[in-house]
Amino acid sequence: MHTIVLATQKGGSGKSTLAIGLALAAMQQGHAVRLIETDPQGTLSNWRRRRDNAQPVVETLAAADELAQRLATFERAGVTLTIIDTAGGLSALTDAALASADLCLIPVRPSVADVEATAATLAAIRGCDRPFAYVLNQTPCRGQRIAHAATALADEAALDAAGVLALPYIVMRNDHQDALGLGLAVSEYAPGGKSADEIRGLWQWIETRLGVEAPALTHDILIEFQPSPDITPASYQLDAAADEIVATAE
Ligand SMILES: Nc1ncnc2c1ncn2[C@@H]1O[C@H](COP(=O)(O)OP(=O)(O)OP(=O)(O)O)[C@@H](O)[C@H]1O
Ligand SMILES: [Mg+2]
Q: Domain 2-248 falls in which CATH fold?
């Protein structure tokens, strides 16, 4: 089982939205997915209540010392991917989640204040020595602002942008908000849309980074589930000189 954790001090940067999007993208690739919500705000639990589909199961967790046990239970039950959505700010619970992660994802909007606000989260991740990547979220379709944010994030981490920036960037699109309101993920709400394509691309990037192969699409939990249509997500490359990421043909 792999565990990914969405964390950043800054509220509203897209932790919960990405947790949902990635959960469904991974399920559509054959993963047995659990979501853990450590945020008392309850965004995932509320989303779950609006869903008709019983999957993915959302479990809440309020105590840091229960996390290891919970993950062990999931693993025994055959879960292949756990995604943990944390609250904004720093807490013992978020620290415990980060320490359990195979990959920490830090969603960040392309603004100076948001980039600066990642410092505390980055320090916490470095404190437990876990792999991490930034996800630029709610970006404009294109523009210098994205390139500036990417450069600033690489500076913040003192690493090359290619090592710390997940691709593709997730553009600000209404689909994410509309899907959330209906208890859906973008890959269910608008499977042929650009937002769904970006999230599938992001999941592919994460899978590659984790070094996992998608399980065969045979898991029971997928019975009610329509695999996504025949759309292959584009590959994305970070072009340092360009003001946007470049989708490349397969
Ligand atoms: N790529 C996107 N395009 C459009 N809207 C988005 C996108 N990502 C997130 N949003 C919207 O931004 C708002 C904040 O997102 P979300 O709740 O996922 O952030 P969060 O980091 O979980 O916030 P919190 O710290 O409060 O838990 C929501 O209304 C969500 O629908
Ligand atoms: Mg949230």
A: Rossmann fold (3.40.50)
